[in-house]
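Thread: quick sanity check before group meeting

JM: Hey all, I'm pulling together slides for Thursday and realized we never actually wrote out the predicted structure for the chain we discussed last week. Dropping the sequence here so it's in one place. If anyone has concerns about the input, flag it before I start.
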Amino acid sequence: MATKHEQILQHILSLEIGHKISVRQVAKTLDVSEGTAYRAIKEAENQGIVSTIERVGTIRIERKKKENFERLTFAEVIKIVDGQVLGGRKGLHKSLNKFVIGAMQLDAMMRYTEAGSLLIVGNRVKAHELALNEGAAVLITGGFDTNGEIKQLADEKELPIMSTSYDTFTVAAMINRAIYDQLIKKEIVFIGDIYTPYDESLFLYTKDKLERWYELNKQSTHTRYPVVDAKERVVGMITSKDVIGKDMTMPVEKIMTKHPIAAQEKTSLAYVAHMMVWEGIEVVPVVDHSNKLKGVVSRQDVLKALQQIQRQPQTGETIDDIVSSNLLPSEEDDTIFHAQVTPQMTNQLGTLSNGVFTALITEASSRILRHYKKGDLVVENLTVYYLKPVQIDSQLTIRPNILEAGRIYAKMDVEVYNGKKMVGKGLLMAQLIDK
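JM (edit): ok, ran it. Output follows.
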């Protein structure tokens, strides 16, 4: 039987897109406390099926599917620009395909304004009307309002007309940044993208006898399984080490490892990879918000995904991407690297930022370990014990030197030069992720 929390989520999913939701109304409809209703609505917001907008309330929106291009809804635009809705609230769940800046003559403006787009314009009432009639939403900049007829038209067309105090070009920059941020997030691999669902994997119940482990082991050849209670919530893990020398009739709950590390679908691949190395874990159970088992992710799954990421281009560039693309091996010696200090790599003073310096050290160390087929690294400790200011456009030479490298551990000494002058030195200690 579904919990009250799950019942509320199912109820919200059954509502029409654009429907307004309130804590009080949900609590009354499903006969639950307002606290329970509030927590479920917040979970629905985390899942992307509702959106809460200041001065509007919480509305049911369409859950986004993975696409080549991640679009923004008009509800998200309102949050980005700290705006208010003047009319057309029922259309806030819709997505914009593109935005048009209305800094031109009306006829020229309308050639670019089409259904599904967003016109960003100032106090030009005729432009507001033409855009709505074309099927486009409107964002009025400079804190201006519009007249009652336009608001009524927006309600009829179910197209939002919104207002913000920012100027037109600031708004365009803010929306551009939000789209760019989403492109970067889209490239991040989450555990939800790679885990094996539990109906395809194997698990044990706490009341099972140990002989059940041997049955599963014979059937699957796996040696590690999640242990769940009667409600299929993860409460432990059992491995071959746990069962050695134990009586076959013992209950699993007596010998399992309690309180195992678990991941949720929105946990990043990088975080789980780090935990697996750090804790020496081979399998991590994947759970939902109530700790109910959804599947498992293995070290092999993580390694395959990490290898796949390295082969795929990034759509949006983070600082780490910029560092990686600027770090090139020397023509004379491919264990020495060169990098140019670009404007994105500097701080407000125009010198190389500390964060970028550590990224350069980490990337160079990672490449040198891969060069010697030692595997990928997870940084355990990084100490920078010498650093001088480095000017923008400087040409750097990074010389990583392996002090120690075993099967699971490495220690690196890294020197950074600007010309012949040393400008930085660091000591990096890391654990290795290898096959």
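AS: nice. The mean pLDDT is 84. The chain has four domains: 4-60, 74-187, 192-307, 317-433.
JM: adding both to the slides.
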